[in-house]
Amino acid sequence: MPLLELRKLTKHFGGVIAVNELDLTIESGEIVGLIGPNGAGKTTVFNLISGVLAPSKGQVLFRGEDITGFKPHKIAQRGLVRTFQHTMLVSEMTVLQNILLGFHLTSVRTIWKAILNTPSTRASEERLLEKANELADFMGLGDVRHVLARNLPHGHQRSLGIAMALAANPELIMLDEPVAGMNPFETAQTMERIGQIRDRGTTVLLVEHDMKMVMGICERLCVLNFGVKIAEGRPDEIRSNNQVIEAYLGTAYASQVD
């Protein structure tokens, strides 16, 4: 069965149809891109999958389980975790402290163990700190691990958001514009790390407007326009699809890939 399956997923906001009967499947081990112009419904799809919004109709299935309408924390506990378009960091905490927050979804520590500060609790905290340091190094944040989040440059903040999501040990991670605002060097580094995330066993679904990045890393693309899927296929199929070029890629895309 698919790892993630959307069946006729639909969302109305009053008289506006933001997402209209979207069918999409994601297999384990894929890197899939969800693309389209501003207002196409991409972030709404992410919000529906992750439980931030409830669909007007349709279903979201994860590993065959119907998770439609589940609360976000229940979905995350099942191994489906997302980042946000605007990075959600605790600005007065360090990089390591923010990453440690990501572990709370999978931590089994009880309140009594925390109060009593038992040996098992201390050992668990040491293991989590070790894992947090590993994630900081993996995402290129090792040199700033003790820096407050608010003092990080933009690219590092985006990387920290991904590190926090990875701390929850997701089976599928949804990345909302992971390279937005990054310079070309940072974008190339993030592309490489997304490939490594997949190679480590985590499936990736991403929304991104950087077409060089999308075409360079995604194995399959789904294109939305006004909430409707207008195309799906490999990057080479999408780049030559006339409907996609007219609705989204156009001359701007041609200038990026030439």
Number of helices: 10
Order of helices and strands: EEEHEEHEHHHHEHEHEEHH
**Binned strand content:** 15-25%
Largest sheet: 6 strands, mixed
Average predicted confidence as pLDDT: 89
Percent of residues in helices comes to 40-55%
The general outline is globular
Distance between the termini: 38 Å
Number of strands: 10
- What is the CA-based Rg, rounded? 19 Å
Question: Can you tell me the residue ranges where pLDDT is under 50 for at least 5 consecutive residues?
Answer: none
Structural class: alpha/beta
Strand order, sheet with most strands: 6-7-8-3-9-10
Please summarize what this structure is.
By secondary structure, the chain is of the alpha/beta class.
Provide key terms for this protein.
single chain, 258 residues, alpha/beta, six-stranded mixed sheet
How does the SSE layout of this entry go?
Elements (H helix, E strand, L loop, with lengths): L3 E10 L2 E11 L4 E5 L6 H9 L6 E6 L2 E2 L5 H6 L2 E3 L12 H8 L8 H6 L2 H20 L15 H14 L4 E5 L7 H16 L3 E5 L3 H7 L2 E6 L2 E6 L1 H5 L2 H16 L1
Parallel strand pairs: 3-8, 3-9, 6-7, 7-8
Antiparallel strand pairs: 1-2, 1-4, 4-5, 9-10
What this model shows, in words?
The structure is a single chain. The chain is an alpha/beta fold and 258 residues long. It is 41% helix and 23% strand. It contains ten helices and ten strands. It has helices at 42-50, 72-77, 95-102, 111-116, 119-138, 154-167, 184-199, 211-217, 235-239, 242-257; strands spanning 4-13, 16-26, 31-35, 57-62, 65-66, 80-82, 172-176, 203-207, 220-225, 228-233. The strands form two sheets. The protein has a six-stranded mixed β-sheet with strand order 6-7-8-3-9-10, with helices on both faces. Strands 2-1-4-5 form a four-stranded antiparallel β-sheet, with helices on one face. The chain is globular, with a radius of gyration of 19 Å. The model has no long low-confidence stretch (mean pLDDT 89).
